[in-house]
Amino acid sequence: MKKLIMSITILLFCLCLLTYNFYNDSSIDDTSIHNIKPQNMLSIMLESSDGSGNYVMTTQNSWPTDGYVFNSELSKCENGGTLSWDKTNKRVEFSGNNIDKCYVYFDVDTSMSLAEYVVSQYTGTQGVNGIYYHDANLTNGAGDNSYRYAGANPNNYVCFGSDESICPNNNLYRIIGIFDGRVKLIKADYATIDLLGIDGDYKATYSYSTTTYKGSLSSSDIGVYMWNYNNNTTINNGYGSNTWSTSLLNKINLNTNYLKNIGSKWAEMINVTTWKVGGNTYANVFNQVPSVAYQNEIVNPVITNSTDNATEYSAKISLMYASDYGFASLPSSWSTKLGNYTGDNNWMYMGLSEWINSRYADSYMRSFLISGVGFIHFDYVSTAIAVRPVFFLSPFVKYLSGSGTSSDPIRLVV
After folding, report:
1. Which 3 state secondary structure label does DSSP give 251?
2. What is the CA radius of gyration of the chain?
3. Are 321 and 239 in contact (CB under 8 A)?
4. CA distances from 383 to 8, 107, 241, 318, 355 (A)
């Protein structure tokens, strides 16, 4: 009898300890639901079909994510506990101190990701809605199965960093394209000092011609930055180094200040990306058409005369590639060498000199840029010019609304 009582006591203790650990951890594990709490304490309810309002209890061992969305209104606990969805870790969060029985509801998710929305705008005819599908059949294209916007002014605007009903001009971004299912954005206008800061590789003076500038910022708003000067006059006699991994523009202005200043909500929407930073030579970028430059700077970058052996760098934020700029023009320009571009019929051209993410591999001290009149050029990395942040959105970012014009930009939801 004593052994029986002892066994029951141990069993009850283990059960209570398991439940205690679950609730005091305040999160429901996303990989093995049944192993962390008693089965009868949690019911997962899945909607049977879109909009049906009928829910069926499931016995699956992981949280439903693909094809389902957490229903915060129906999900509840019997004894006052509350449930919420952790979108970053893809799991349910519990808040409460008492042993509780909870019901977690998931609806059929019919919303489109932003990538799916953009692809849906491609009708199968090249150029409709400003979108070109770069498969093997597209003449002079990238051949990477990307979907890219091209032309003078396609409807590819996105409001990013603001939920205001009228999107501020400084929060307008544009979609470069869809690459391996991910959306690539670039800031529509140049980055301001409020976004990138006045430390890092910032330089205080810059002047520009209003005859070419297509944006709306004043010279005091536009942040001008050296590609990689590091505030160190001893590097190559003060001309700097074209090593992106040591660039303070990269490490401080783009991947510290910018991410902080846009806010955590928006920073979490951005994916870490492996950027191709090897660059290439004058002959292989400046003197090539976009399709060849794409191969040379992204598929087969070189490290000739660079200050380290890195051809890749992982971070959230970077700059555009030379080929990104080249393919933003109408296809009639894709047979033109990037060094002969003019910026005509190219939505990415903004009229000022700006840095791109391709180093000039013929020299330790130079990198490529877009000149103020629209062709790919190069300069010392100690030169201070404008920049525009470029990044990939995470796949969970969804299309909410908007036609993509500057007055009705695409809105995002997660």
Report:
1. helix
2. 26
3. no
4. 77, 53, 11, 18, 10
Largest CA distance in the chain: 96
Report the C-alpha gap between 273 and 313 in whole angstroms: 8
Residue ranges for the chain with pLDDT beneath 50: 2, 4-40, 305-307
**pLDDT at position 12, please?**
44
pLDDT of residue 108: 80
Instruction: Tell me how far apart the alpha carbons of residues 77 and 80 are, in angstroms, rounded to a whole number.
Output: 6
The pLDDT score that the predictor gives to residue 107 is 85
Predicted confidence at residue 286, as pLDDT, reads 95
Query: What was the pLDDT predicted at 14?
Result: 43
**Euclidean distance between CA atoms 83 and 75, whole angstroms:** 7
Residue type, 44: I
Whose CA is closest to 232, among 241, 245, 244? 241
**What does DSSP assign to residue 249?**
I
Cβ neighbours for 148, distance < 8 A, ≥ 6 positions apart: 131, 132, 134, 142, 176, 177, 178, 327, 328
Q: What are phi and psi of 27, to 5 degrees?
A: -145, 145
User: Given this model, what pLDDT does residue 323 score?
Assistant: 97
Cβ density class 348-362: b for 16+ within 10 Å, e for less: bbbbbbbbbbbbbbb
- The per-residue pLDDT for 235 is 59
Locate tokens 């916007």: which residue?
149
| Strand residues in 282-402 grouped as ranges (E) | 312-315, 354-359, 366-370, 376-380, 384-386, 390-392, 398-401
pLDDT computed for residue 236 by the predictor: 60
How far apart (Å, rounded) are the C-alpha atoms in residues 20 and 187?
Answer: 48
pLDDT at 18: 37
Tell me the C-alpha to C-alpha distance, in Å, between residue 159 and each of 154, 259, 319: 15, 16, 19
CB 207 within 8 A of CB 346: no
State CA 154 to chain mean position distance: 20
Count of Cβ atoms closer than 10 Å to residue 318 Cβ: 22
In single-letter form, the type of residue at position 24 comes to N
For the entire predicted model, the pTM comes to 0.78
